[in-house]
Structures are given as structure tokens and as C-alpha cells.
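ESCALATION

Customer reports they have been waiting on this structure for their group meeting. Please prioritize. Original submission:
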Amino acid sequence: MTTLGVAKPFELDSDVLPERLSAGPDDAIWFTDPAGNRIGRLDPTGAQSYVPLRTEQSGPAAITLGRDGNLWFTEHAANRIGRINALGTVTEFVLPHAGGPAGIAAGPDGSIYIAENSGDRIDRMSPDGRVDEFRLPNAGSLPNGIVAGPDGNMWFTELASARIGRLSPKGELAEYPLPAIGTPLSIIAGPADALWVTVPKAHAVCKISPDGHALTFYLPETVIPSFAASGPDGNLWFTEPTGMIGRLTPLGALTEFPVSTPDAEDADANQEANAGARKKLLLMSQP
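Update from on-call: job pushed to the front of the queue and completed.
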């Protein structure tokens, strides 16, 4: 999707279930495919290729680009972390304890950080596979999404506790409750040097400064913010299960775009997409 809100779909094979995606070091998009137990690659022309994983039914979930130029991904069902280079060579690392690795992100120190969903832990993995474990203070918190923050710390969501957490490079943990009631789904480092968290059940997006102060944008009830990304235009972009893509400015102006436009280079398509966009000014709450 362009920053004007024009989408161009790429049709994948019918047996593919793309779950998470990441930009690769080769101008391609890499994604996990749990249905095929493989990692997929989509280049800008739409050509697709796949690398099967050796561990059966491993449950590839999240994927991220590491500072070493490789793609790293979690194998949720197999308790492993995978590394794949641009040539498609896969290396797998077994985690010390079972914990359902979910979210994964590259840290500013060159390590890879993993949120262990059922293990209530954040793991730090060196490029050669050595692991340090940091246990969360509350059992059953279900850490899920994780991202490197603008403050040099790692930030993560806790699905079961409606909180987000912060892990410093020294292993110091802090937790912050969210003002919006519901499960925090996606967390990113985004506009205004802040952390942005989507809370679909509350129809809300929370903007959190590195000191934990939260500003909440409450969206209309028809808008269900899901997975988010920081756009090159300085705005927050997020998916919706209704077939729309939302764009939220740092000041809270919302625009929604349909994703059914077939050709991003077609001038008529641009006009149609812009005409179909729905713009709203949101209510904000600041605790």
C-alpha cells in the first residue's frame, strides 16, 4: 500500500497461510507460513518461493530482520528459533525451556529478543544461539509482541494482563497498565519517538512515551485496530479485520482505506481509493 492509500494485492498459492511478514535484506518480503511449515519469500514483481523447515509442524509464527542481515523467526510449536539467510539456508536453535516462543525482535545490542508466550519469559539470544532468560514477575501474563523502543530498551505486550512491559539491556523489568481495557495485540516503535499499542476490543490505540505515560486514541466502534506498522510518512498504519487499512497521525486524525484496489499505478485507482477513504478526528484521553 502506498502512503496515498492505494493497495496492490499479490496472489499467493491457495495452500499458503501467511501469518507474519518482514522486509528482508534483499528488497523482498519474507513471511512465515504455518500451514506449509515453511518460510516464504515474495519479491517486488510478485514472484514467490518457499523454504521448508526441517522440524515438522514447528509452527513458524513471527519473523524479523536481524542486525546481522539474516531473518529470524519463532517456531511456536517446536520451542525453537530459526535463522534464515538471503540464500535460504536455515539454522535452528532449541530454547533451554519450553515456553511457546511468539514475538521476536532485533535489539540495539545485536541480540535477538523473544517473547515466550506460555513461559512468561523474555529471552535474549546472541547471533550464535546463546540464551539469557528473564522471567516476568506475574505468572500467566502471556508476553506476545516485542519491539526495540526508541529509548534503547525492549518493549512487549502481555496478552492476559492488559499491560506492556519494558526490559533494559541490564535485565531490569518494568510493567505499565494500559488505560484502554482489553488485550494489547500489536506493539511497535512508531511516530513521535513513542511506543504504539493496538487494543482491538477497546477500539483503541495507545501512544506510550518511554517513561510509561500513555495517551489513548479511542476509535469508532466500527474500527478494530489489529497489527500495526510505522509508515514512511510519519504516521501509524494498521490492519483491520473488516478489510480496511487504517492510518493514524500522531495528533489522532484517522483515515481508512479499502484494500481491494487492483493496481497501485493506475490513476483511476488512486482517485477511487482516495474517494473511498473515510476520515475521522478521534477522541483522546490522557490519564
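Sent to customer with the following note: Residues 267-276 form the longest helix (10 residues).
Escalation resolved.
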